[in-house]
Amino acid sequence: MNIKTQEISMSILKDKGVKLFIKRIDQSHEYISGNKLYKLKYNLLEAKRQAQSTLLTFGGAYSNHIAATACSAKESGFKSIGVIRGEECFPLNHTLNFAKEQGMEIYYLNRDRYRLKNTDEFICELKQKFGDFYLIPEGGSNSLGIRGASEIIDSNDVQDFICCSVGTGATISGIIRSADGRQKVIGFPAIKGFTQLESDISCWSNRSNWELINNYVCGGYARINKALLDIIYTFYETYNIPLDAVYTGKMMLGILDLVFKDYFPRGSSILAIHTGGVQGNKGMVERLGIKLPS
Ligand SMILES: *Cc1c(COP(=O)(O)O)cnc(C)c1O
């Protein structure tokens, strides 16, 4: 894949003597959100190896992973089933509409039933309903997903700090595994539940050259505030870089605030991973009537 890394020039960066680069894995595919493409890669290969014809996965109604799975399944010749948390709503939002257009079969589960999704009993029920399938967990976050995410960075990415947004922690775990021991990986959670995230990432990455910084959740998953929107508008207007409001905008808000607070030593360099997710902005625009890049 031909992935571009751009340097961001901003007066605060110059003042503080740090360099900031952004790796545009959001551009690795026209429709599939950056990190989700990486997390699906080995899952699709495994589904092929098992000679499965159908992929089944889980997600919320605005999920980047649902959109990515629908599109990847179509491209790779699989049928796909998306099990969606919540009730059916009309008109379909942008994400589910897209997933349907890609041929995904959508199946809704109320929130109580959705919580059971990882139990053997429930998966058995799904197999009775849909026939056999290859199961991809929510977010694509299994060991094959982490293996795929470990390909997000490589030996050309030599910056001192690598930053990314964190949902389940699978993506950062892959990045931590590929980072050089002298690099530090910093994760910015987009969801609450810090302790669980830390223990999952410890377990998945099995290394210690990382840290989670929890001050930029902006009130919780898919919540927004003015500081977040300001960063998103600045990046779009000044650098023509669309950030999403759920993940990458919060990461960038965190990075720039840490620069301001002298977290990064003078002379150091930072690589921010643009994990994608911009399709999710459309849903936010639909729901909240605000302006966001797409
Ligand atoms: C899903 C997602 C994440 C979080 O990835 P995890 O592997 O669940 O931590 C980060 N950024 C974007 C844009 C995403 O869509």
Note down, in words, how this protein is organized.
The chain is of the alpha/beta class and 294 residues long. The protein has two domains: 5-31 and 143-288, 3-Layer(aba) Sandwich (Rossmann fold), CATH 3.40.50.1100; 35-140, 3-Layer(aba) Sandwich (Rossmann fold), CATH 3.40.50.1100. The protein has twelve helices and ten strands. The protein has helices spanning 11-16, 34-49, 64-76, 94-101, 111-114, 120-130, 143-149, 170-178, 194-205, 226-239, 248-260, 279-288, and strands spanning 5-8, 19-23, 54-59, 79-85, 105-109, 134-136, 161-166, 184-189, 210-212, 269-273. Strands 1-2-10-7-8-9 form a six-stranded mixed beta sheet. Strands 5-4-3-6 form a four-stranded parallel beta sheet. Helix 8 (170-178) links the parallel strand 7 and strand 8. Helix 2 (34-49) crosses helix 3 (64-76), helix 2 packs across helix 7 (143-149) and helix 8 (170-178) packs parallel to helix 9. The longest helix has 16 residues, at 34-49. It is globular and about 60 Å long. 46% of the residues are buried. The mean pLDDT is 96. Pyridoxal-5'-phosphate is lined by residues 33, 35-36, 64, 139, 141, 165-172, 244, 247-248, 275-277.
